[in-house]
Amino acid sequence: MTRRSLLLFVLAALLIAGCGKREEGHTLVTTGSRRLTVEEFEEYARNADVMQPYLAMPESAQKKALFDDLLSYEVLAEAGVRAGFDKDSTYSHIEEEALPRLLPDALYEEHIGKTVKVSESEAKLFYEQQKEEHRLAVITTVDETQANAVVTRLNSGVKFDQVAREMSIDPSSRSTGGEIPGWVTYGQLPIEVEKELAPLKPGQHTGVIVQPQGTYVFSLLETRPRKDAPPFEQNKDEIIKMLESRKKGALVSQYLGGLKKQYALKLDGAGWTTVDEKILVLPDSLARWLGTDPKRAGVTDAEMGQTLATWTGKTYTVKDFIDDMMKAPMNERPPAGNVQLAKLFVEGKAMNAILVAEAKKEKLDKSPKVAQQISRAKSSYLVNKYVEKTLPAGAVGFPSQAVLDSLTNSMISMSGAQVPKGGIKFQSLPPQIQQQMVAQWQTAHRQQLLKAEVDRLKAEIKPVVDEKALASIPWPVPAEAEKEKA
Q1: 183 φ, ψ to 5°?
Q2: With the CA atoms of 425, 427, 433 and 437 taken in that order, what torsion angle do they form, in degrees rounded to the nearest 10?
Q3: Domain-embedded: residue 209
Q4: CA 292, CA 190: separation in Å to the nearest integer?
């Protein structure tokens, strides 16, 4: 049950990101108001992320296990519908919230994903380049103007580490004089960076390198032969996949640069003074009011409306910046006192909005793949809400003292150690081990409760399975291209 329960808790995220499925096709199972098709099942089976938990199983058991887990997922989603969670306000906004995340990927796939190919000869050439590894340093700047100032100082003879400590906007590399920890080989850096680094000798620096995440100047500190490089044939497939990813990354950078010019994106306006002199210097006691009562944080209505960025059809204001910061995880928010990183944050939000606008122009928000991803996001919400309602945190409970003592002695016995006469008490274990054992028991108990609830729902909802269709699905499921040839 461990693997299956794991799937019920994490399958939702994998399904949203992993498979864009079709509504048409032969029905494999009907679960109340829900329907899973043969085509959907096959696409799940082709997805590496979805299949990862099953790889340790015998191949002959994988298809049934995947089907059982998907059926359990569908049963829980149907239970969510019957509980009325599809009437929640959050449920009604799922599409609105998901599109800004899904549409950029759909746009990249439409314009870039289908065009990238890597030959074996390209992979072999790249492998030869990986026989050396390099130690690097970097200075991160917010724009080309600042990067050009960096290059001017370096060309005048100022040492790289001194310029990095004075001008880099990245706190971690600034503190080390720009030095990047460890050694890297080609393949770990963007293509544009590697092209600039390739002709350098130790001690030399690149020119200005513009990337979507920022603007950089690199220095090559040291080069050495790489030890124990694996044979090419052993890593050929991984190298090809990695090069495909790099090519896509380079094309994405070019594409974003073109859109930035097309939409005339500019990061300027009076609002940056407010961000720099008010918002980014607020103490925590006032910053916590930014999202709910900006005036209490010292930001006036007039300042909230000030411009930070403009692009075709849009003005991005201080209010937009505050709203986006409040929605972002803490580790993604611009740090206090760093207006350069705040500008990178705003540029990222602007470019995402531009990508969404482009995708909607091309009607990708109406595409079958995106529509199904939205459907799966809704299913995920239904499943999670139902599980939260049925198995709240307090429902799992705590193991009894007798159970804990028994688990303690079983653990010691399984380790090969001799259990003393009379056994060992749970309380004698170190506190960290006690916490781990209680957590493991609660996880297992939660899994048992979830299985019991799924079994109960199956008996109540009575899903209808086309056993003949299930049996006819080949396993492993062939790749889409192989299926089309057949």
Answers
A1: -115, 145
A2: 70
A3: yes
A4: 40
Q: What is the DSSP letter of 195?
A: H
Across the beta sheet with 214-225, the strand order is: 132-141, 214-225, 209-211
Alpha carbon separation from 253 to 123, 217, 257, 315 (Å, rounded): 22, 17, 6, 24
The whole-number pLDDT of residue 24 equals 57
Handedness of CA 107, 109, 110, 116 (dihedral sign): positive
Q: Within 13 Å of residue 159, how many CA atoms lie on the same side as its CB?
A: 7
76 and 382 Cβ atoms separated by less than 8 Å:
yes
Query: At 309, which helix (H) or strand (E)?
Result: strand 307-311
Task: Report pLDDT digits (tens) over 277-304.
Answer: 999 999 988 888 998 999 999 999 999 9
User: 217 and 141 in one domain?
Assistant: yes
Structural domain that includes position 72: 2-82+464-485
Alpha-carbon distance of 21 to 161, in angstroms, equals 52
Q: Say whether both 136 and 218 belong to one domain.
A: yes
Predicted structure pTM score: 0.68
Helix, strand or coil, per DSSP, at residue 371: helix
Instruction: Quote the DSSP letter at residue 399.
Output: -
Provide the Cα torsion 194, 195, 200, 205; round to 10°: -80
What is the tally of helices (H) and strands (E) in the chain? 23, 8
CB 456 within 8 A of CB 68: no
CA separation for the pair 403, 134 (Å, rounded): 55
Task: Work out how many domains the chain is built from and give that number.
Answer: 3
Biggest CA–CA distance in the chain, Å, is 79
Cα–Cα distance for residue pair 483/211, rounded to 1 Å: 39
29-72 pLDDT, tens digit per residue, is: 999 999 999 999 998 999 888 898 999 999 989 999 999 999 99
Q: Which two tokens stand for residue 401?
A: 């003292």
Find how far residue 218's CA is from the centre of its chain: 27
Give phi and psi for 141, each to the nearest 5.
Answer: -125, 165
